[in-house]
Amino acid sequence: MGRPHTTHEADCSGSARPCSCALLLLAITGLLVACGGGGVQPVGGSGGSASPNTATLAWVASTGPNLSGYRVYYGTAPGTYLQPPGQGIDVRNVTTYTVTGLSGATTYYFAATAYDMSNSESVVSNEVLKVIP
Known about the structure:
Blueprint: E1 3-4, H1 18-28, E2 41-42, E3 55-58, E4 67-75, E5 80-81, E6 89-92, E7 96-99, E8 106-116, E9 128-132
Antiparallel strand pairs: 1-5, 2-3, 3-7, 4-6, 4-8, 8-9
């Protein structure tokens, strides 16, 4: 079972990175987009994945100068992800990712974060869902 995934913010308290953190935080708000609404979404709507037990996600790239990559989080309850904060699926710097091996007859909730060269992670993006038939 997953544990609640609280919003976690990049550590912007140091004077060395105030701009890079701000860019990540601003960029993450509109990070995930696809068909069927704004934000992080399965591509192709509720049933358009190549395999019935997958969800393909796509998002708008962040333009932060220190961006290193993105992490994808998912779970079966809103705001509760199987991956602990900071340990989402590291998809590097791509803007699409397919989550595989999802259980049928289950609703999954997805979100993403961006992280920088210091491994500071942004807040979690908006959340979307997909029903796996």
